[in-house]
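Readers outside the structure-tokenisation community will struggle with the description of the input data as it stands. I therefore recommend that a typical entry be quoted early in the introduction. An entry of this sort, consisting of the sequence and the corresponding backbone structure tokens, reads as follows:
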Amino acid sequence: MQILDRYLIRQFVFALIFSLIAFWVIFLVVDLVEHLDKFIDKHATLFLVIKYYFYYTPYILALSLPVAMLLSCLFSLGQLAKHNELTAMKSAGISLYRILLPLLVLSFGISLFVIGFGGSIVPFSYQKMMEVKTVEIEKGGRERNIILQNIFVQAEHGRIFHLSSYDTKEQIGTNVLVQRFERNRLKEEIRAKRVRWDNNGWLFEDGVVRIFSDSAVELGRSEDLGRMKPDSLPLNPAEEYQAFDRLFRLDLKIKPDALARRQKKPDEMGYFELANYVKVKKRSGQVVAKESTDLHLKIAFPFVSFIIVLFGAPLAANPKRSGLAIGFAISLFISFVYYTLIRMGQSFGYSEKLPPLLAAWATNVLFAILGTILLVKAKK
């Protein structure tokens, strides 16, 4: 590595560390002021508050990293431009592409690191933070009578449980779908308007049970069947179909605690865990637009750090835009536009107005194109 590369990286890293610490402190202060009354009302101890923000920190750093990257880029390069150091480098025959190369390589490496960091540490710490908030600070939230909505649980032996609602105290669920798969084949399906835990088993009420033989419907067709109402299901010679008023099953090993457990959010899942969740939920015929969009964002969002540097580097290399105040203002504006477009794409993906892959990557592609154009047109 050449001396200039080390010098530029050192300037950038110093500004990055300072920016991350500053954003972390600002975020903590704002969040603490917002939740201070809740902490006091719940009689949360200082230790619990510190524990809560300790587990919250990785999520905060991952969220603020793109803004910090852009600010560091604008500040470090802006100072070089302000003091004519970039002009001196260009006069020595070093092109702007070569000057920016170490920052682009470093930002790309940071993006790869964030993919791993965001796929392991961040989901784990976010889940721990939510447990501290709901269980320890809010004093045993799991024991309250809660009506949970849209429960989806993967159980033993390839079984999938989906309930529209579930009463954790009465242990009663409504609009129930239980499916059992073997090697991507739907082997059994139970649909019922109501289910409740009774005598160490599940009692289904007012529904139908279908059992498929080996020649029954493959995965693709089972997804179509999963969207249909029981009255409109087609007859198939390779299946047994029986309506019932009451059906008691002792062989379903899933317990009420598993259904009452707080459902993980996509932010609490790693990439592979969320990918498996999407696969299982899609196999059962459920709509997975929201989860698929979040899955693609787990790869797309970390690359914001690289693309934002690609976009901001040509701006920072202009001496007319140098200075900390101007760099900070530009960083906030660009970051605001970036996050707004990211959230818009996410909303379009959730509502199925855009394919999940396009919804997650559209903003990155747009800024990458704009950044490339700015870089090509910048003075070399």
Q: What stands out?
A: Confidence is low (pLDDT under 50) at residues 215-237. The CA atoms of residues 43 and 137 lie 8 Å apart. Strands lie at 147-154, 159-167, 172-182, 185-198, 201-212, 239-249. The chain has two domains: 3-139+291-377, 156-253.
